[in-house]
User: What shape does this take?
Amino acid sequence: MLLSEMSWPEFQRQARDSYAIVPVGAVEPHGPHLPLASDTMISEYFAERLARDLGGWVAPPIGYGVATPPYRLGGNFPGVISVSGTTFMNLVGDVLSSLAGNGVRKFVLVNSAIDNVSFLCEAARVLTEAVADTRIVIVAWWDVVGEEFRNDLATESGVPRSDDHHAAMVESSLVMHIAPSSCHPERLTSSPGSGRTPRRMRYHVFPLPPDATTDSGVVYTADKASAAIGERVADRVARNLAAAVQREFNDPGE
Assistant: This one.
């Protein structure tokens, strides 16, 4: 069920006892082969699957996120639409507070952009301290996909985990499965661009050093992505996501 399609009496009947599932994403480059709103698409997909599995409803997505550092994007590319951390936290907090004011007490924030996490946690902390009987679960697909499953994928594909992060094999595969008409796998190559592998580091430098940039925005390995892999990942995540939410809300299910 989508909140945007409910009448107010329908919402009122659902508010207190059902899960309010809020998709959270971002608008930023994911290489030449994926859409700018990939993170939001992924969150909406899993939010809707979770609503079907557990009987909750899906709020309109929060589609603008905190800017990802250019190192993880492979450089500065057109298409980033971000908000400051303060704006993002206030936006999330206002949405949660409005829903709580209408009686909602069970929240699941389905997030797919890692730089949003700390701000989501702070917004959740503020609300749960203000409204004592509120419970909030913040979860991303990579939190519940499972280490053994990811290791098996790495072995099968030959793509090591260290080469499978932003816009790489697993994320690309997910979007290919979820939104195939928005993807362009033919634009992928085995190289990040011009035959040069970008320098990798664990820290951040501003502005980004030239040898840490890419021509395409593909920092990692994405050329082995496929919709078939994405379907496997999606089914695994959906199952584990539902189980995690049931566990945290002490929901025995059917």
